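Exercise 7.
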Amino acid sequence: MTMAEIKAMIRWFPLGPIEGPLEPIKKEDLDKIAEQYGVSISLEDMRGAVLGETRGKAIEEITQHIVTLSANNEETFREVIRALVNKYRAPRTTYATLGSDEKARRMIEELFDEEDGWL
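Solution. The predicted structure, written as tokens, is:
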């Protein structure tokens, strides 16, 4: 029996030391995490993809770092989310999981809270 793919999109908005990631998000670092856990991770920098505001700034004016993660089992998915939070911290915006499937979004929110006091 094959497990269904779990897909997540996690968005960091680099708005400074409080809201942004702890360190720059680099493709090379994500590639190492992907190789370590046997998952697919990609990075896209996007400006103006979502309308609205975050932290008093229009999102369309802010570059987002969008990390897309795809895993074939829940345990591995959770381990990768923990690794991302430990390296970068949980994103500080309600738009952080926009584009994730519902199952992934619930797990991400749970792990963000456990690992980083997100909620």
